[in-house]
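User: Can you fold this complex?
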Amino acid sequence: MHDRDPAVFFDVFKEIGIIEQLSRAILEARLPDGLIAPHFAVLNHLTVRGDGRTPMEMARAFQLPKTSMTHTIKALERHMLVAVRANPEDGRSKCVWLTQAGRDVRAQAIAGLGPDFAALAQGFDVEQLRAILPVLTDLRQFLDAARD
Amino acid sequence: MHDRDPAVFFDVFKEIGIIEQLSRAILEARLPDGLIAPHFAVLNHLTVRGDGRTPMEMARAFQLPKTSMTHTIKALERHMLVAVRANPEDGRSKCVWLTQAGRDVRAQAIAGLGPDFAALAQGFDVEQLRAILPVLTDLRQFLDAARD
DNA sequence: CACATATAGTACCGTGTCGCACCAAATGGA
DNA sequence: TCCATTTGGTGCGACACGGTACTATATGTG
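Assistant: Here's the predicted assembly.
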């Protein structure tokens, strides 16, 4: 087990798996009943990237099977957080638009997380997070590119 | 957005969520058909910590609801990778034991990951991972303790 | 234009996740 | 000891995930 041992990937991924689970719990505690992290991810994506995206566009962005995206969008539609309309530029396709309620749910979740993160920041050195963020971003991009 | 902005949590958790998804795909590509990451996690736990653990012990270790653990163990039992027997020390409880097939599946998965990680290590600076691992471990422990 | 192929989306189904209700066994206080 | 409470495990139901198969539309090649 020398310095260049690639097994460090195993340990990093293990920690990341646990942190993902814990951070998901923090997020979901701030979402209305029945909404979970993937729903929020879509609302956030539509806000940041602009709505009117197609389901396939988002499935690719999240690297999810298109059936999963169909399902997630259906749930958001049931909750009236998005509206789905035909794509005028492609008869096979649809476009997903945020409703005002959708924008509000996202904003409320983020607002609720503010105090949570502030509380965490009191017990954990935020500078360390800022320091590792570029490596995480590199790693994410690298794995993304390495996925065949 | 100054240097101590706790919003860095948001970005770190977002990257971690994506990396978790990509690394899970790498692992699951090395598992036999029908087995997914949580199944492997249990096999690995029983190998590392020693088998004979109870379902509740593992549910707590993974911070999962006990119903999820029951379900995961049932699946491993169907695949004959673990054997569940009564706990002689507690009539309410059971103990989960690895079968030889269970040990083999875990060993095979890890053996398969070796080349994967080695390939990744050729394109990504492993030293950077080694550098961030302690911070990730700290963060995991901190979030674990902070969860009420 | 005709037609083979590629692409967007969905229906269906098996499986995973997890809350609730329940039972059985253990525990602890009077 | 008796009994209330706690704890380990499971059945069930609602919903999430994702593979296969299918339809409809678009695209590219002759």
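The CA atoms of residues 118 and 124 of chain B lie 10 Å apart. The two ends of chain B are 28 Å apart (CA to CA).
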